[in-house]
């Protein structure tokens, strides 16, 4: 036991040192007092323990910045899972020499730079290594541990040939995408005779042929000079031809500049059949065959950036003839032919429901893929819920409106689940979160961004879509329609608590793991703190809020089989009375926080949560 205590102290100090380097007040406040006690559930956010030793550190999407010391993990010798996914941590990747029990490492979506550390090669239990979307450079080390089943280094600055080990060659090219200087199989880029291959063989060559090289040096130099002159000659010819071709193309291309100066939208006027010979023509296709405008009109429209999404940027385009549309420029797509793209988009377009934002049109060319939607003028629910909180200009987001959102989203989801009935293991929406729920000019609730899983490259989908953050994906890498139910549960929890969920909120926000937080809050009877003050003051509706909270908690159950089916959810959400926001409530809203808390103490506390209300 003494030994355990010693370790416990060292591990605790190591973690406190780690967190002091991050600029994060949530962790600083949460990581206080006892860390782990025997096999009790962990006390600190993101930490798991076994026999009082730290086995898992999972700090994802918390907006963490700063660097981690190379030896930060030195004392965590029982560590098996480490994830700093989707933060903004910079500096070199730490040393893992002392962490022989690591099975899962996820540092994806950060700003780590420098090389991939060689200490990783010695981790013989390592099963999953996720380093994608960082700034790592240098070559990929010779990973050959057979335990390694998942590996992703895409979107870094890695270079040189991918080592020819059985393990590395067993992963497909998506694991290596987005490293312009990486070459050789499994990627499709050839290493040829560039310095790539020579670099890795350098050491061998140096020792072997030093005497021979003295004879060859002058000959090689002469050959190099001739080759250089020849290349120069070729590039002059090419440049002249290219300039001519570019001029021709520019006459037939339109360039739209958007707000972000570096991001240019270039679309061929394919409709008129003027795409360069051999190039694929672009097509703007309207779903309902009612052609509202031409591509030219869209390109002439004034545009405004709406935001940078996970799968592309969105623009609001105001056409001269009146319509306002949203253009979503898709990026990181699967390599799809025009036919495949059209087929997948048609599937999305066929989904039609009052609470779904239907697709208006799409555009496909070799370099550009766009989806066009109607502009929802009252914005998204994430902003409605969180923007301007505590400011005098804030218009409260009242209970009845929140309940209508909960109903609309549930019905949209029910429709998506019904229309995909024949494939029980698909996730019909996949990316259900508050920024994907919109309000149109009549405040109709419209769910958007459904069905994109079929278009986006698999590793990026897994990294960015909310359903992939569900407990079953984290532990078993399995998804089902119940993962959508989990996302819906998280969405409801945000609506009733007014807090940002770590799984769906943008990075940098003060987000919490809402499912765990609420379960703990209920367990520990923090009744007054659960509900968002803005609705908690509406006492006549407290009963309905409690019911919605119960539904949310069931949807967030860790094991998918314990979560309800969507039809049951719809029935239950619809059975909650839509009490109009009464004038009494308005009076309450102007009262101070102490009164608010008193009013909440009138709500049924722990004993009634989790049980059916009379
Ligand atoms: N049709 C629309 N009308 C009004 N606003 C929209 C529309 N479509 C998207 N938006 C808003 O534009 C912004 C960017 O949307 P986008 O879907 O690209 O990103 P996101 O929802 O933040 O993340 P993700 O890519 O994971 O869905 C969001 O604030 C979204 O609510």
UniProtKB/TrEMBL annotation:
Xref: InterPro entries: Kinase-like_dom_sf, Leu-rich_rpt, LRR_dom_sf, PRK1-6/SRF4-like, Prot_kinase_dom, Protein_kinase_ATP_BS, Ser-Thr/Tyr_kinase_cat_dom
Compositional bias segments (type: Low complexity): 188-211
Record-level Gene Ontology MF annotations: ATP binding
Localization (cell): Membrane
Region (Disordered): 187-211, 568-614
Binding site for ATP: 328
Name of protein: Protein kinase domain-containing protein
Organism, as annotated: Cinchona calisaya
